[in-house]
Each structure stands twice: as C-alpha cells, then as structure tokens.
Amino acid sequence: MSKEYTIATFNCENLFTRPGIFEEPDVKAKELLQEIDLLKAELKKPVFDHDEIKRLAKSLNKYATINDIRGKATSAKGAAEWLGYVSVKKTALKDESVNNIARVIADLDADIISLIEVEDRLTLKGFHDDILYPEFLKPAGKERYPYIMSIQGNDGRGINVAVMSRVPINWMQSHVHERTDKNTPVFSRDCLEVNFALTPDVPLHLFVNHFKSMGYSSSGDPQSNKRRLVQTTRVAELLDEHDLKKEYVIVSGDFNSCATSPSLAPLLTKAGMYNVSEELPAGERGTYRTGKDQLDYIVVSGAIKEKLSAVHIERRGVYTARGSHYPTVTNRRTEASDHAAVVATITV
Predict the structure, then answer these.
(1) Quick one: angle between helices 50-59 and 26-42, nearest 10?
(2) Which of 257, 198, 270, 189 lies closest to 226, judged by CA?
(3) How far apart are alpha carbons 254 and 115 in whole angstroms?
(4) Which residues lie closer than 8 Å to 142 by C-beta, 6 or more apart?
(5) CA distance 335 to 324
(6) Residues 211/257, Cβ–Cβ less than 8 Å
(7) Which of 83, 187, 196, 265 lies 20 to 30 A from 301 at CA?
C-alpha cells in the first residue's frame, strides 16, 4: 500500500543557544559574571573555603555549574585534590525570530527535514521540546519529531547541518574527516549521510549539505567556487555508490549558488539525479531573500522522481517589502530566515 511522505530542507539562519546570563539585564549580568570569576578563583586555592564555594554555586545555580573531572569540589581539601572547571549554562534563545522558525517548520509538517545552520543536537532538541512541539505542533494536532540528529562539523563557528524526522533512522555517517590534496577539509561543514527506514524493507538515503558560502575564503584557502566544485564532485562520487534508478536517494541543503553555476554542475547535471525545483516555473524557484536566486535544493534520484507528486517553496518566513510573509514577520530582525524552505512530496 502506497504512502505519502513530505521531504523538506530549510536554512534556519543560526538556530543557536546562548548563556542564560546574557538574557538578564546588564547590571545583573555583570554581577553574575563577577561571581563566576570569584567561584573560579576559589576553586584554584590550595585550601577550599567550602562555605564560599557553596554560596557562590547556589547563587549561580541557574547560570553556571561546577564540572568535576577528578575529585569533587564539595569534598576536596583544595585544588591539589581536584580537577574540573566552571561552565556557563545555555538557554534556548527566546525571540520572535525563533518562534517564526518554529512556525515555518510546523507549517511544512515534513516527515523528514534537513536543517541548515544549527548549533548542535542538544540545541535543536531543546528548540523542539521547549518551543516547536508544545507551542506549534501540538496545538495544531501535528506529530513531534522523535529522531533529531546532528554531528559537529568543520565550521569553527559551530554552524552545522542537522535532520529531524518522524521516520526511523537506520544509520548515519559523517564526512568531516575527509581532506583535499591540499590538506584542507573537503566539506565546509559536513556531508551528513542519513539512512531512513521508510518501511523495514525500503530505505531512503539522504545527504545533507551546506556547501561553501559565496564569500571569499580565509587566507590560503581556495575561493568559494573552487571549494564548492570540490564538494559537489565528492557528493557525486558518493552517489556512484547507489543505483539511482532503483534506490531512493536525496541530496538536500543550502548549496550556496544558483543552478547554472559550474560549481554545482557535478551534482545538478549528474545522470540519474533531478532538481525537484524544476517542477516549478523558472521565476518561482528562488529561495534566497527576494526569491531571485535559488540557493536551497532537494535533488532526488530517478527512482524518487517517478514518485514525486508535489513541490513548493515556503517563503512566508522571509521578510521582503513586497512578498507575502507571516504577520509576525515584521522586518529582517524578526524573520525566520533569509532563506525560504524547499518542500517535496513523494508517494511510495
């Protein structure tokens, strides 16, 4: 019996947490930071003042924690018997822009969604558990996402790719370790492979990507077009491991260039792969800002193309002066993202 699945990709433009201290007014934040410094100083002393450590730990309970590695700060005589550190506690960034990210994802209601520019798995899970599900999915009678996965990539700023799914995950594989002949990472973030069980006998194989940005790279690194070409060439090689006529395979994410760019040619012109946005009129395929340029893609194998039943671009999370957007998207500060989401429906 056939079943319908919705697949989406969305660059949510930095879904990050930040230290809870920074959510407080400036005066209180400064006081809390000073207390953290005092706690760190106490934990370096040859003889611990346990009453002072206890007082500071209690005062900072919502904002920082003592991490014991060897020994316990509560029982050690001093620094010589203890090894550890003080870390700040992070909190989900509560903001109208974050609510609009949730609003977009809830309206997509995808069974599998690739997410771009996510800090890490715990941040994404916190966003799901604290905001997306209770405030948007549950009230609309929509299902939660039990499968939430991300692997730390190569971007030093912590900008990673992730996936949320209602379909069980069989296995995952990262490619963060792969290097070019110049000993630089092949992938700016990662090419995250995720294998799903549509049924116990029918897998779907997804490659989630965030290719090199269009800006100029750091010193000694090739320019962005050259790096993207290396990345798409590698993804095309990985696709060679699959029978694209028979297997359900998808490459999705933010490719950071238009469809006519030579840097995307190894992937977009690869035999057996199809850019689902070609189902739309040429003027309606754009995903970035005003919709002029397509940067976000769902590219599917021939086996999936035959099952494709609908494609659309969800633009309401992007603020533009003329375009249609959510009433809660009032300017660029409150928009969900500067990228629209790509959505494809398949029946298998």
Answers:
(1) 150
(2) 257
(3) 9
(4) 106, 109, 136
(5) 12
(6) yes
(7) 187
Give Cβ neighbours of residue 47 (< 8 Å, ≥ 6 apart): 77, 78
Claim to verify: residue 76 and residue 103 sit in the same structural domain: no
- Give the β-pairing of 112-118 and 4-15: parallel
Note the helical H segments in the chain: 26-42, 50-59, 96-108, 121-127, 224-239, 265-268, 302-305
- Of the chain, the end-to-end C-alpha distance in Å amounts to 8
Residue 144's identity, in one-letter code, is R
pLDDT, tens digit only, all 348 positions of the chain? 789 999 999 999 988 877 889 878 899 999 999 999 999 999 999 999 999 999 999 999 999 999 999 999 999 999 999 999 999 988 766 789 999 999 999 999 999 999 999 999 999 999 999 999 999 999 999 999 999 999 999 988 889 999 999 999 999 999 999 999 999 999 999 999 999 999 999 999 999 999 998 764 554 445 788 999 999 999 999 999 999 999 999 999 999 999 999 999 999 999 999 999 999 999 999 999 888 899 999 999 999 999 999 999 999 999 987 778 999 999 999 999 999 999 999 999
* Residue 269 lies in domain: 4-16+93-347
**Count of structural domains within the chain:** 2
The label of the residue with tokens 């290396």 reads 230
Identify which of 202, 190, 206 has the alpha carbon closest to the alpha carbon of residue 112: 206
How far is residue 81's CA from residue 87's CA, in Å, rounded to a whole number?
Answer: 20
- Of 45, 63, 90, which residue sits at a domain end? 90
